[in-house]
Amino acid sequence: MSERIEIESNVMDDRHTSGYLEIKVFNPADKTRTALKKLAIWWGLSILSILIPVFHFVLVPLFFFLGFFFARKGYMSEGQVLSGQTACPHCGTEIKVGKGELNWPVTEICQSCARVVRMEKKEA
């Protein structure tokens, strides 16, 4: 179930703009499912890399430990950003926010001025 929240965007100065994000907040079961999925993907890559001569000495342990890293990161995520929109506080260009992990503050790069736009929940 998705939820629409109002956000405030800034570029690390006094200028602010408003916007919104469509988000899905994870419950503990969703977090566990996401973590196990990421672990399975990375461990699958680890198993497949056994077949690569010479490089398997590096790739197998790398993918094995990356599985733990990304599984933990997925479990710690608050949810998922489904979509959103705001305006760049610096140049005023419309910024469309794509799908990604929900970790506050959400950041997006303005394609017009190349500034990092930070989005945070609007204080009520």
Our estimate of the beta-strand percent is 35-45%
**Structural class estimated from helices and strands:** alpha+beta
Largest sheet: 7 strands, antiparallel
Shape estimate: elongated
**Which regions are unreliable across 5 or more consecutive residues at pLDDT < 50?**
none
SSE order:
EEHHEEEEE
Average pLDDT figure: 87
- How many strand segments? 7
Radius of gyration over C-alpha positions, nearest whole angstrom: 18 Å
Count helical runs: 2
Helix content: 25-40%
| Number of individual domains | 2
Distance between the termini: 22 Å
Q: What topology emerges from the helices and strands here?
A:
Elements: E1 3-10, E2 16-25, H1 28-48, H2 56-76, E3 79-87, E4 94-97, E5 100-102, E6 106-109, E7 116-121
Antiparallel strand pairs: 1-2, 1-7, 2-3, 3-4, 3-5, 6-7
Helix pairs in contact: 1-2
Report on the structure:
This protein is of the alpha+beta class. The protein has 2 domains: 1-26 and 80-124, no CATH class; 27-76. The chain is 34% helix and 35% strand. The chain is built from 2 helices and 7 strands. The chain has helices spanning 28-48, 56-76, and strands at residues 3-10, 16-25, 79-87, 94-97, 100-102, 106-109, 116-121. Strands 1, 2, 3, 4, 5, 6 and 7 form a 7-stranded antiparallel β-sheet that branches. A hairpin with a 5-residue loop joins strand 1 (3-10) and strand 2. Helix 1 (28-48) runs antiparallel to helix 2 (56-76). The radius of gyration is 18 Å and the shape is elongated. It starts with a strand and ends with a strand. The mean pLDDT is 87.
